[in-house]
Design goal:
The chain is mostly helical and 208 residues long. The protein has one domain. Helix content is 82%, strand content 0%. The termini are far apart.
Length: 208
C-alpha cells in the first residue's frame, strides 16, 4: 500500500466517523457536556465562596475535618461514594485535600480511589446478570447511559471520566453490556486528568 493510498483511506474513515458522530448527535452531546462541566466547576467555586462569605467559614470547616477524621476514614468513605453512584461530589474531597499536609499526594490518592471505585462498579455491573430482576431495574434506570455507550464506545467512557457524567454509572453500564474490560481500564485513566484540572482550580481557592 502506497503512502497516498494509506492517507486517502485514513481520510475516508475519518469522514465516515465524522458523519456517524453527526448522525448520532455526538457533537451536540459533547458541546452540552463541556458546557455543563465548565458551569459545574465555576458554579461550585462560586457557591462555596458565597457560602463562606455570608454563612460559613470553609477554611475552619475543612481544617476541622482534617483534625477530626483520619485520612483513612475520609478515603474509605470516598471510595464507597465513588463506587455507589457517586453519592458525594468529588469536589468536596478535593477541597478537603487542599488542607491536608500533602495536598497533591492526597489528590493523587483520591484520583486513584475514584479509578478503583469505577473498576468495582464495572465488576458489579458485570455480575448483575446473576440477579435478573435487579439487572433489569438498573438497566431501566441508566438506559440513556447504556444507549450512549453502545453508540460511542470508548469516547463515552472518557467523557464519564472527565465530565460531570457520573463515572460510577458509566462504569456500571460498561459492566452491564460487557464492554471490554481492558479498554475500560485504559480509557478510565482519564479520571486522573479530571482530578488534576479540578485540583488546580480548587487548590487556588482553598489552599494555604
Amino acid at each position: 500500500m502506497t503512502r497516498n493510498t494509506y492517507y486517502n483511506n485514513l481520510l475516508k474513515r475519518l469522514g465516515l466517523l465524522n458523519r456517524y458522530y453527526k448522525i448520532t448527535k455526538f457533537y451536540t452531546f459533547l458541546k452540552d457536556t463541556a458546557f455543563k462541566a465548565g458551569t459545574a466547576v465555576v458554579g461550585f467555586v462560586i457557591l462555596l465562596v458565597t457560602l463562606e462569605y455570608f454563612f460559613l467559614d470553609f477554611d475552619v470547616l475543612l481544617n476541622n475535618l482534617v483534625e477530626t477524621y483520619s485520612p483513612q476514614v475520609i478515603f474509605t468513605f470516598f471510595l464507597t461514594s465513588e463506587t455507589i453512584l457517586g453519592l458525594v461530589p468529588p469536589e468536596i474531597f478535593i477541597a478537603w485535600a487542599s488542607k491536608s499536609p500533602s495536598p497533591w499526594l492526597f489528590l493523587f490518592i483520591l484520583a486513584t480511589l475514584s479509578y478503583l471505585g469505577g473498576i468495582i462498579a464495572y465488576l458489579i455491573g458485570s455480575r448483575l446478570f446473576m440477579v435478573g430482576s435487579i439487572k433489569h431495574h438498573i438497566e431501566n434506570k441508566i438506559s440513556q447511559h447504556i444507549v450512549n455507550l453502545r453508540k460511542w464506545g470508548s469516547i463515552f467512557v472518557v467523557l464519564g471520566a472527565i465530565s460531570p457524567i457520573p463515572h460510577s454509572i458509566v462504569s456500571l453500564a460498561c459492566g452491564l453490556i460487557k464492554y471490554s474490560f481492558k479498554d475500560y481500564l485504559l480509557w478510565a485513566l482519564f479520571r486522573y486528568l479530571r482530578f488534576f484540572i479540578y485540583g488546580m482550580v480548587i487548590f487556588q481557592v482553598f489552599g494555604e
